[in-house]
Each structure stands twice: as structure tokens, then as C-alpha cells.
């Protein structure tokens, strides 16, 4: 296709947007509202997914070492756990370190136990896949020189089930919202093109090819998608930046953290922009097709 033809199509798409002011406004408004809903929901779900991931990554197995185990036996146990499939990391904590931690958390009264420490040496183990924590814990429990293996049995399984269900529900809701957005936007664009069916019929009758007729409408749909994405991008960026500046300092040091503004918000903005463009092009392409059969 010649560059002059492409330039003509671009000019025609812009002129069409200007000539059909109210229909353009209706289409852009539909794109804006639906993409704003999609953008806000994406920000919420991606942060909830991060919270779920943080919870999973915080899960660890606490291995209490038998009091009868000497230093050689403890070394052997540590090596066995390190070599075990599915283990990501392991940290050793002596009973003195454990007692110091309790004194720090619950007060100096517990320092009286330093004369006769009743605690045990401990190994803190993390599984490569948090969902496999229970499986790894059972394997460790079968090893020699372990007194007790703690990982929140019963509760941790319920937690992971809840997180998996939450993720699946979030994915379904996002897909449903995207399909709804595609339906609303494409139908609004279809109304715009239907109102101009006579223009398409005349172009066909004078010998214009299908692609010659279609390209200006496809470009117009792309411009409508771009215009409709501007406000959602601005609103989502400003709101999330403000929310982050208020909440992030209060959550500093906590397990749960919001996703950093950059690059997260730019990724969301890019997704919103791409959705607007793709849905606009798709809606125009599908809508104009039915009027090309003359």
C-alpha cells in the first residue's frame, strides 16, 4: 500500500471522528468507563495476589532437634535436610538464640531461664514451593534426631486452599470484566458504524475494495480506544500513587506490602492502553464487516 494511501486513510479517520462528534463521544465514554473499571480491578487483584504470595513465602517449618543429639548428629541432620528435594533454605538457631528471642519479645522476666535453658536447638526450613510445605515437613519428621516438626498442620492447608480459591475467583472476575468491556465497547462502535452504513455502501458501489473501506474505520476504532484509555490511565496512576504514599509508610516492616508504584503502575497503564487499542480495532473490524457484502 502506498504511503499516500495510508496518509489518506489516517486523515479520513480523523475527519470522521470530528464529523461524528456525538457518536465519537458515546464510544469514547464507553471505552473510558469500562477500562476504568478494568484498571481499578486489576490494581486490586494484583495487590491481593502479592499479599497471598507474601503469606505463602512467610510459611516455614520449625524443626525441634532432639536433646540427645550431639553436634555430629545435628550436622548430619542439617545436611540431610539441605539435600532433601523441595527444600529452598534452612537456618540453624541454637537454644540460646531462641531464648534471647523470647526475652526480646516478651520481656526480661524470661531471662531467668538463662541459668537453666529448657528450650531446644531449632532448624527453620522453607520449601521451594510453599504449597508443598506439609509434604516436606512429613519427610523431615521421618528423619532421626528430630523431636517435633511444626508447620501449622491443619491450618496451613486451609490457608493455601483459601488463597488458591481467591486467585481463581480473581482470574474469573478479570476475564468476565474484560469480556463485558469488549461487548460494551464493540457494540458502541457498532452503533457508530451502523449509522454510517450508507457511506460504506456508496464506497462499495463506486468500486472501493473491502480493505480500502475497512482501514479508515479500523484506524478510527484505534483512535477511539486510545482516547478512551487516557482518563483511566490518569485516574489509576494518580489514585494508586496517592494511596501508596499514604499506606506504604504505615505498612513498613510488616509482612504485607503494596506493589511499588514503579514499575507496577506503568505496566498497568500499558495494559489499559493495549486493551483500549485492541478492543477498538476489533470492534471496528467486526462491525464494518457485515456492511461490506453488497
Taking the sheet with the most strands, its summary is: 4 strands, antiparallel
Total beta-strand segments = 4
- In whole angstroms, the N-to-C terminal distance is 24 Å
Poorly predicted runs of 5 or more residues: none
How large is the share of residues in beta strands? 5-15%
- Tally of alpha and pi helices: 9
How are the elements arranged and paired?
Blueprint: H1 3-19, H2 21-58, E1 61-65, H3 71-82, E2 87-93, H4 95-106, E3 122-127, H5 133-141, E4 146-150, H6 155-194, H7 197-205, H8 210-250, H9 261-289
Antiparallel strand pairs: 1-3, 1-4, 2-3
What does this structure look like?
The relative contact order is 0.16. The chain folds into two domains: 3-55 and 159-289, no CATH class; 60-150, Alpha-Beta Plaits, CATH 3.30.70.3040. Helices cover 70% and strands 8% of the residues. A four-stranded antiparallel sheet has the order 2-3-1-4. The chain is built from nine helices and four strands; from the N terminus they run ααβαβαβαβαααα. It has 294 residues and is of the alpha+beta class. The radius of gyration is 30 Å and the shape is elongated. The chain has helices at 3-19, 21-58, 71-82, 95-106, 133-141, 155-194, 197-205, 210-250, 261-289; strands at 61-65, 87-93, 122-127, 146-150.
